[in-house]
Amino acid sequence: MARKGHRPSQAPASRPRFYGRHAVLAALANPERNVRKIWGTREALGALDLPPVIPITYADVADLARLVPGDAPHQGLVAEVDPLEEIWLGDLLQQGADDKRPLVVLDQVTDPHNVGAVLRSAAAFDALGIVTQDRHAPPESGSLARSASGTLETVPWVRVVNLARALEEIAEAGFWRIGLTGHAKGTLAEVMGDARIALVLGAEGEGMRQNTEAHCDQLARLPISPKVESLNVSNAAAVALYAIAARG
Q1: Residues 165 and 131: beta-carbon distance below 8 Å
Q2: Most buried by CB count within 10 Å: which residue of 48, 194, 205, 226?
Q3: Sign of the C-alpha dihedral, residues 189, 191, 196, 197?
Q4: What is the dihedral of CA 25, 67, 116, 46, to 10 degrees?
């Protein structure tokens, strides 16, 4: 069992509310997730086999809409949950010591939809996990969980205080740290070789910070058409993870 740190106790107001079938069902299926309560329509709740210890409230569609951000597609289900316990970077690196699964490192990517989409791609291409900063990354939320389409519950997410130090620890664990940036000379295919890869991506627009680039072993770009200036960070992550998975 991986060693985990504990979050401070959360006040009820700080508990995220997940909505939509994928996010709610994945939370229920995760033994590490504490689901506090569920609201739903009779039709949606009737299709679930819920543990009797979880309080449920029957609600109509209009009532559910008031529990989530404006126009959020709740699909008849809303759940209040506790955030997951934190995972230590060293434990994650130790878990992946005997395989070549890639690691994804995000530098100040703050949009929950982007982080959720990266989690989904990380799950699709069997990444070891994702690493973000603690203060410059979104908290768990309904919008992030919906964008992740259930993978928030299955992909390890490590939050670190200092990304540069984390990249040093990642290098010590045997990863080749490749930073994706449009100004790199070589493409990802040209520079990745056959090493274990930590893929480092910066926020859309600003890109990686200079200190983050300095802690990469190699910079690389994706061979996109000059008609497009750049890809959204989640799209770039998906393309890069596919390229790593397909290298043979």
Answers
A1: no
A2: 48
A3: negative
A4: 10
Chain-centroid distance of CA 113 in Å reads 10
pLDDT digits (tens, 9 = 90+) for 185-230: 999 999 998 899 999 999 877 789 999 999 999 999 998 888 887 7
Chain segment 69-109, per-residue pLDDT in tens? 887 889 999 999 999 999 999 999 998 777 889 999 999 99
The neighbouring-strand residues paired with 221 are 187
- CA distances to 29, 77, 100, 147, 151 from 48, rounded to whole Å, are 12, 10, 38, 22, 20
Residue 170's CB: how many other CB atoms inside 10 A? Answer: 24
Distances (CA, A) of 182 to 21, 150, 210, 228: 37, 31, 14, 11
Query: The whole model's pTM is what?
Result: 0.90
Phi, psi of 154 (to 5 degrees): -120, -25
**Rounded to whole angstroms, how far apart are CA atoms 53 and 139?**
26
All residues at 6 or more sequence positions from 104 whose CB lies less than 8 Å from its CB, including other chains: 118, 122, 127, 129, 130, 131, 198, 199, 201, 237, 241
